[in-house]
Amino acid sequence: MSTPPVSSFSEARTYLVYLFLLLFSLAGIWGILARGSHLVPHQTVAHSGAVAGSVGVKQAEAAPTDGIVGQLWINLRSPLGILFTQIIVILIAARVFNRLFRLMGQPPVMGEMVAGIVLGPSVLGLFYPAAMNFVFPAVSMDTLRLLSQLGVVLFMFVVGMELNLTHIREKGSASIMISHASILVPFVMGTALSLFLFQPLAPAGTSFTAFALFIGVAMSITAFPVLARILEDRGLSKTVLGSIAITCAAVDDVTAWCVLALVIAIVKASGIAVSLGTIVFTGVFVLAMFMIVRPWLGRTVKHESYDRSGDRRMIATVMVIVLACALITEAIGVHALFGAFMAGVIMPESVAFRTFLREKLETFSSSALLPLFFAFTGLRTEIGLLNDWSSWLTTIIIIAVAIAGKLGGSMLMSRWTGMSWSHSYAIGVLMNTRGLVELVVLNIGYDLGILSGRIFAMLVIMALVTTFMTGPLLSLVKRQIDEPLGLAQEVT
After folding, report:
1. Helix (H), strand (E) at residue 280
2. Which of 10, 381, 384, 419 makes the best surface tag, with the fewest CB within 10 Å?
3. Under DSSP, is residue 468 helix (H, G, I), strand (E, B) or coil?
4. Is 105:98 a contact under the CB 8 Å cutoff?
């Protein structure tokens, strides 16, 4: 008769000791709780009744039923539970619309923008208001707004990082002329349009100067990241046409954000002296970024190793720089997003370094945080405010002016520089793409009180329409834009 191995006895003994430890611990905890259940803290005896009563009222108000179901409900509707619910709903909706718009041949970011509108009062709030109030109660909006702002800060950092200043400097006069026309023409038309929009649509207490300048900026925006992805998807990123479009969009972005910083300084300042001080501080900040931070970063990157520990150090350093720049410009009074944008612009021009940062930061911010911003924008957009024919007529006029200024101004200047009509038209269509950057700008205007709910909804619709039309309009001249530009050599 064989005897069991020694290892089996050892294993059984280990389990017995473990079981004894569990039973002893449970018995000890039960005994301690039973012994101390009748104890009352001396300092709270006099107030125990009041405290217990207040807690009981809060629990009765929070829980729909008693027992475990009521406790589950209380946990679900805690601030953290609400935030997790919102994130889950937003990411699922963004993913669904992302895939739907990809199948339609549109940039996926368009789907996420539309998903935000659908989750807001314009669709979900209209058909299922109880569901919208359950997922997005009013008390949770501040938390969602702050979290979404973090995503936009990282997004603007990536936008700034994608700008190639050397590429801009090397372009010829034709690209500069086109980019200036694509800014000045819509800006002038936007400020002229504000003469008719100001009285019926501007919020009370808003100055005409701030309103007109902001409408001009909103009309002048080109969505640099969306445009770059459209060019890449269509195989145009390496062509002369794509190079000109990228250069013009880059100049547009830099100029528009500088003008926007000026507008914000005017709005926030309490007097001329304060406004001038804000502008001076902003200039000092920009100079310090280029003359101090950028050279230091270049030296740091050159001596940094890209192993696991080096990755952590570099990401931590870059995040501190981005958030510090955002904090500085927020304190100066020109908005945190301008600081994040400048942090991206001054990053070292090493392709490997910028690719490394983009892979580490853009994936998370684009897939997890930016959908929160789209949802927050959608919750602000009440298309139901456009409840009469005059509101929709005004919206159509805004869209027409936006297209005429941006597409028309860019196309005519492109034609003036010697391009064919088809290539000039393609440049105009690309420059008319507004996308996410426009939503960022509009939210700034809404936060500053420059835009009312009605004009905000109109401009959001304009941003969606002008971005949505880019793909179909480009397809009209697909065959022609594959041909040589016929442009003067100075452009290249």
Report:
1. helix 272-288
2. 10
3. helix
4. no
Contact between 231 and 242 under an 8 Å Cβ cutoff? The reply is yes
Residues 411-467 pLDDT 10s: 998 888 888 888 889 889 988 988 778 888 899 899 888 999 999 999 999 999 998
- In residues, how long is the chain? 492
H/E segment holding residue 108: helix 108-119
Helix ranges (DSSP H) in 363-434: 363-364, 370-380, 389-403, 409-416, 421-431
Residue type, 112: E
The whole-model pTM stands at: 0.75
Q: At a CB cut-off of 8 Å and minimum separation 6, what does 12 contact?
A: none
Q: Which distant-in-sequence residues (6+ apart) come within 8 Å of 301 by Cβ?
A: 314, 348, 350, 353
106 neighbors 468 (Cβ within 8 angstroms): yes
Neighbours of 88 (CB within 10 A): 11
Residue-averaged pLDDT of the chain: 80
Tokens encoding 13: 């003994």
Interatomic CA distance for residues 346 and 354, integer angstroms: 11
Judge whether 346 and 297 are in contact, CB under 8 Å. Answer: yes
How many angstroms separate the first and last alpha carbons of the chain? 93
Give residue limits of the domains in the chain: 149-376+386-491
Grade residue 405 by pLDDT with cuts at 50, 70 and 90. Answer: very high
* Residues 227, 228, 232, 233, Cα dihedral to 10°: -40
> CA nearest 256: which of 283, 307, 222?
222
Q: What whole-number distance in Å separates Cα of residue 375 and Cα of residue 122?
A: 12
- CATH class given for the domain over 149-376+386-491: mainly alpha
Cβ neighbours for 334, distance < 8 A, ≥ 6 positions apart: 261, 264, 265, 278, 282
Do residues 339 and 326 lie in contact, with contact meaning Cβ atoms separated by under 8 Å? yes
Dist. CA 198–CA 193, nearest whole Å: 9
Instruction: In whole angstroms, give the CA distance from residue 198 to residue 407.
Output: 24
Sign of CA dihedral 184, 155, 91, 355: positive
List, for residues 187-217, the tens digit of each pLDDT value. Answer: 999 999 999 999 999 998 888 888 998 999 8
Give CA–CA dist 171/489, Å, rounded.
11
Beta-sheet strands, E only, within 277-418: none
* Rounded Cα–Cα distance for residues 115 and 89 (Å): 10
Find out whether 161 and 358 touch, Cβ atoms under 8 Å: yes
